[in-house]
Amino acid sequence: MDANEFIKNFAAQFDDTDASEFTLETRFRELDEWSSLNALAILNMIGKKYSVVLKPEEMKPTNTVQELFDLVQSKLS
Question: Residue limits of the Carrier domain (predicted)?
C-alpha cells in the first residue's frame, strides 16, 4: 500500500479542505471540516479501495493520517 495514494484517497473525502494540506502528519480531527460524516466516508473508502473493514471504534484512537495508514496497513498483513 502506497502512502501517497492513501493520502490522495483520504483527501478526496473532504470537500472544502485543499488536498495539498494533507500529509501523513495531518491531524485530521482538528480540521474545521471534520465530522462524523467524514469519518464514515473514510471508513467506506478504506473498505472499497483496500478491502479492509474498520469499525468506527478502531478508527477512534487515530489522530493523524499516519496513524490511520498504519492501522490499515496492519490489517493488510
Answer: 1-76
5 exposed, middle or buried (CB, 10 Å; 0-12, 13-18, 19+)? exposed
For residue 64, give its domain range: 3-76
pLDDT at 20 over 80: yes
Looking at residue 27, its pLDDT comes to 98
Please tell me the distance from the alpha carbon of residue 27 to that of residue 24, in angstroms, as a whole number: 9
Query: Sign (positive/negative) of CA torsion 36, 54, 43, 27?
Result: positive
Residue with cell 502512502: 3
**Number of domains the chain contains:** 1
- Is residue 77 pLDDT above 80, yes or no? no
